[in-house]
């Protein structure tokens, strides 16, 4: 028998004062002691044969710890079921009181799902999106494809000009000292062997591409580069680096012509077949973009149509995730950690805003799914796992071994979001022309 | 007379001793090598405030034990006392 008192601490935070009756405590204690006595190894007794009072005396501390753990777990579960509270996160217990033979009481701090009225989510007005693939778009995609298959060959002896690919060997010095030694973190800014560079204004470091124009293969040139004050790599800001540059090779790019042979090589078809494949790929991409736009439109309209308080613990957790994502994304782009450190507060407030929106959306999507009885069946989930595995070129078994257990839930959630979005797009009102 | 703590070394707690206690109201103690039956009776009565009806004793001489490297030693000799309490009397061994 469990009695519960609820204290409202915040819109989504409750303190549950739970008391487990003395009878139930005795019953649970008996079960715990029984379990201990079956495993206890005491000198003079075979396992499981020691008298219970002796086991109780010997393992008093462990038995009490286990008992409290069980009573808290069972008591909290029973209280949540009894009061029908939608708990999203347990935040720990306090005021645990237990005396042998008496009732057991404790307070549990929990965050609950917010209560809110679901806005009208059917018939969201959507702008009409035309999926038409123009000839220019197909040509552009084809050019990209051909450029991707380009080959490079040594250019005939001539001065380096804009648009060429230069293979360079260079080394920078600051006040006569090698940058590599002074600033080991400078990477390719310090120097490199056989570094390829597409010669066009603005690439690499300021004035570098312009400074090497006219060089011939084998020639060495000294170039002084002054780094601006807002340069991404902080230690080089405002510094002047003397580069000694040697042009090792000059390369020209050869884009293969569109032909049946080329089409056969990359797609096993002829020229017209390749054209239609590219056209359908462009069309698919346009459809995906259109769907993404429609989804964003619906999500924005949903997010702005209702306001409600969110469970703080979930927002905090999601903020931590968002910060991790932002940092990883910036590091991938080459932004050094020191720059991120400087913008810490700005980054954190961005992450907080993003996290609040994600959590809000999660509750909205869950409610819509519940309202419309949209669920993700086990079959659908396994099918999506297989497709995830295929995308990573892994077997399902390998994929599951690499996937952390806690990632399964977010994957399922993502699948549910997609199903709900499909439903909302289907029910949306697309503007007539 | 000696202190009861020097006569009663420890309660002999094993599966077999527990069964004796449950079925025959008999309790096994390790006692001083030179303790006599009357001394043991008085010591138990004083230590636990219970009525003793019989005391049986036995001496286990130490055994020769060989270590892993062949070193020869001897295990301790000990004296055990099986104390029968009056009907209705019980010892709380966990206290």
Give a brief description:
Chain A has 433 residues and is an alpha+beta fold. Helix content of chain A is 48%, strand content 20%.
Number of strands of chain A: 12
Biggest β-sheet description of chain B = 4 strands, antiparallel
Which strand order do you get reading across the main beta sheet of chain B? 1-2-6-3
What's the tally of helices of chain B? 3
Multimerization state = heterodimer
Number of helices of chain A: 14
Unreliable residue runs of chain B: none
Q: What is the element string of chain B, with H for helices and E for strands?
A: HEHEHEEEE
Provide the structure class of chain B.
Answer: alpha+beta
Look at the structure and give the mean pLDDT of chain A. 87
What characterizes the major β-sheet of chain A? Answer: 6 strands, antiparallel
Beta-strand share of residues of chain A: 15-25%
Q: Look at the helices and sheets of chain A and give the structural class.
A: alpha+beta
SSE arrangement:
The complex is a heterodimer of chains A (433) and B (95).
Chain A: E1 2-10, E2 13-20, H1 22-39, H2 52-58, H3 60-83, E3 87-98, E4 104-112, E5 125-126, H4 135-148, E6 151-154, E7 165-174, E8 177-178, H5 179-182, E9 191-198, H6 208-211, E10 220-226, E11 240-254, H7 260-267, H8 271-305, H9 312-332, H10 337-342, H11 344-371, H12 378-391, H13 396-402, H14 408-427, E12 429-430
Parallel strand pairs in A: 5-12
Antiparallel strand pairs in A: 1-2, 2-4, 3-4, 6-11, 7-8, 7-9, 7-11, 10-11
Helix pairs in contact in A: 1-3, 4-8, 7-8, 9-11, 11-14, 12-13
Chain B: H1 4-7, E1 8-11, H2 15-24, E2 26-31, H3 37-48, E3 52-60, E4 64-66, E5 72-74, E6 78-85
Characteristic key phrases:
heterodimer; A: 433 residues; alpha+beta; 6-stranded antiparallel sheet; 4-stranded antiparallel sheet; 14 helices; 48% helix; extended; B: 95 residues; two-stranded antiparallel sheet; 27% helix; globular
């Amino acid at each position: 028998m469990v009695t519960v008192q609820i204290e409202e601490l915040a819109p989504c935070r409750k303190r549950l004062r739970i008391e487990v009756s003395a009878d139930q405590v005795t019953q649970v204690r008996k079960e715990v002691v029984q379990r201990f006595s079956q495993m206890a190894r005491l000198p003079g007794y075979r396992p499981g044969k020691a008298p219970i009072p002796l086991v109780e005396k010997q393992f008093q501390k462990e038995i009490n710890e286990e008992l409290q753990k069980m009573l808290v777990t069972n008591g909290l579960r029973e209280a949540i079921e009894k009061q029908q509270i939608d708990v999203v996160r347990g935040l720990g217990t306090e005021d645990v009181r237990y005396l042998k033979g008496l009732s057991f009481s404790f307070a549990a701090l929990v965050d609950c799902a917010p209560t809110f009225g679901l806005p009208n989510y059917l018939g969201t007005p959507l702008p009409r999106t035309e999926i038409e693939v123009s000839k220019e778009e197909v040509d552009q995609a084809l050019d990209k494809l051909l450029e991707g298959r380009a080959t490079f060959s040594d250019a005939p002896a001539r001065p380096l000009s804009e648009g060429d690919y230069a293979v360079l060997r260079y080394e920078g010095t600051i006040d006569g000292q090698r940058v590599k030694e002074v600033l080991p973190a400078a990477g390719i800014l310090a120097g490199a062997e056989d570094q390829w560079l597409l010669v066009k204004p603005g690439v690499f470091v300021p004035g570098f591409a312009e400074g090497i124009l006219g060089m011939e293969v084998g020639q060495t040139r000294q170039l002084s580069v002054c780094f601006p004050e807002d340069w991404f790599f902080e230690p080089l800001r405002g510094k002047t680096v003397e580069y000694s540059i040697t042009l090792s090779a000059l390369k020209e790019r050869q884009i293969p012509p569109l032909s049946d042979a080329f089409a056969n090589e990359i797609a096993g078809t002829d020229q017209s077949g390749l054209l239609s494949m590219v056209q359908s790929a462009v069309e698919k991409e346009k459809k995906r973009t259109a769907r993404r736009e429609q989804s964003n439109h619906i999500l924005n309209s949903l997010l702005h149509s209702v306001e409600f308080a969110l469970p703080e613990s979930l927002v905090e957790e999601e903020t931590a995730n968002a910060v991790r994502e932002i940092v990883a994304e910036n590091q991938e782009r080459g932004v050094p950690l020191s720059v991120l450190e400087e913008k810490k507060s700005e980054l954190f407030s961005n992450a907080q805003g993003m996290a609040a929106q994600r959590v809000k959306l999660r509750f909205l999507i869950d409610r819509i799914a519940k309202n419309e009885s949209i669920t993700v069946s086990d079959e659908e989930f396994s099918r999506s796992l297989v497709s995830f595995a295929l995308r990573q070129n892994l077997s399902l078994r390998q994929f599951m071994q690499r996937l952390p257990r806690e990632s399964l839930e977010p994957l399922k959630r993502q699948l549910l979001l997609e199903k709900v979005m499909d439903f909302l797009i289907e029910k949306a009102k697309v503007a007539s022309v | 007379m000696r202190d009861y703590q020097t006569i009663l070394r420890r309660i002999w707690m094993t599966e077999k001793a527990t069964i004796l206690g449950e079925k025959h109201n008999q309790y096994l103690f390790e006692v001083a090598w030179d303790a006599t039956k009357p001394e043991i009776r008085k010591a138990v009565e004083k230590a636990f405030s219970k009525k003793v009806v019989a005391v049986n004793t036995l001496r286990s001489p130490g055994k020769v034990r060989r270590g892993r490297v062949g070193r020869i030693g001897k295990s301790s000799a000990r004296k055990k006392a099986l104390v029968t309490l009056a009907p209705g009397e019980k010892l709380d061994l966990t206290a």
